[in-house]
Amino acid sequence: VERAAPLQSVAWVDEQELVARCLEGQRAAQRQLFEREKRRVHATLYRILGSNQHLEGLVEDVFLSVFSFLSKFRGESSLSTWIDGFAVRAALGYLRSHRGRRRQPHLRLVPGRTACDDPAAERRARAREMTRRLYAALQGMPARRRTAFALCALDHRSPGEVAALMGATVIATRVRVWCARRLLEKRARVDPLLAEYLDRVTVSIGLDVGPTRVASVADGSASAR
Amino acid sequence: MSDRDGSPVDVEPFTELRWARVERAMFAQLEDRPWDARAYLPPRALIVGVPAIALGAIVFLLVHALARPPALPDPVRMATQESPSRLTVGESSIVAAPDSLVLIRRDEGRGIEVTIDHGRIDCDVGPRRGRAPFVVDAGKVRVRAVGTAFSVAHDAKSTSVEVAHGVAEVVTGGIVSTLHDGDRWENGATGSVGSPEPPFGSGPR
Q: Does the distance separating the beta carbons of B37 and A60 come in below 8 Å?
């Protein structure tokens, strides 16, 4: 009885073909791979680092690494996940080399001072300010803690996936995310805008830190979240 | 932009111009040099330096271990016939004259204990202040070095102690006699020998 070979998904076969063509040095295939993955890599880097500053160089570095190590790709994970690993390592390297160099000032949003009365524009401005405050709060954190938090909470990856990308255990990843969250909650006690933003960031890491007390600067009262 | 929908962070996309710039720069680098893993290896200094340091450490440890004197058996038995024999224990040296039998014990708490069965020894002992004691047992006579060069001779009939320099205490029958430079003690009699002959094997000091 002849057994049928295990079926591989079309995507998997396509991926393997694309990798093989890239390894043969076909520029068109390399461009195709770049085109396919560039936005994903950019978004991962952006969510870890919080701005487009220096991202051009980092994206470039990630793809240069991808092409130089492509022969090591064994297809054990998807090509995208494999490439994400390079993005995470590049972000970690960047954070380590730039730690403490750039401290964003802790700014307060002044209500009613947007350039126009368009509510949508005000919402966008508010969202941008919230994001800015989040990354300002993340600024001083150790690189691995910050990256784990960003990947779990902001990039919506599972702790297992983040652990694999960072070469860490799931427990260590959960603890890092938990520590980051605790620190942010501490900052949020005196920053209602950050507290509001943090409230949206749902992290399912299996470590419940309990309700957060968030002080409202406006009326001086405290509310449980 | 991203396949991570619902993220609380809105990714600010690159403009097409920026993407074009990234793509151009990256493929220019791929064109310029055949990219290989060597670019990602640690710097040459690390590749050469780390193993060299490790090798140096191993050599140092080996040399250090070999240079150390081998551990002495406990007790050490010195039995001489026609020629003398020298033993160094820490900073002290013991020279056994020909036709002597000596046992040396070394103990962390009790210090160095030398027992003369018969014959003669010359000891050169560093000051004992703050160090473990150095004692010589010769039959019923015990000699405790304070910090000195001295000789002890012992046979079935008599025991004698000579101090070349320094101080030694002789204990026998509960009586303690302190000997100084040039003093000689023999079978209970203490007295200066004037200019004693230099102890065997001690040489000029």
A: no
Contact A69 B37 (CB under 8 A): yes
Tell me the pLDDT tens digit for each residue of A161-198. Answer: 999 999 999 999 999 999 998 998 898 888 888 888 88
A to B CB pairs, distance under 8 Å: 78
> Which H/E stretch holds residue B179?
strand B175-179
Instruction: Suggest the residue from B1, B15, B18, B22 to mutate for an interface test with chain A (most A CBs closer than 10 A).
Output: B22
Secondary structure (DSSP) of A9-62 = -HHHHHHHHHHHHHHTT-HHHHHHHHHHHHHHHHHHHHHHH-SSTTHHHHHHHH
Residues A191 and A215: beta-carbon distance below 8 Å: no
C-alpha dihedral over A135, A140, A144, A145, to 10 degrees?
-70
Within 13 Å and on the Cβ side, how many CA atoms surround A138? 28
Bridge partners of B65?
A: none
Distance from CA of B32 to the nearest CA of A (A): 12
Phi/psi at B83 (nearest 5 deg)? -125, 155
Q: Which residue from B150, B205, B204 is spatially nearest to B177, judged by alpha carbons?
A: B150
Under 8 Å between Cβ of B104 and B81 = no
| pTM over the 0.80 mark | no
Burial of B197 (0-12, 13-18, 19+ CB in 10 A): exposed
ipTM over 0.90: no
Contact B29 A30 (CB under 8 A): no
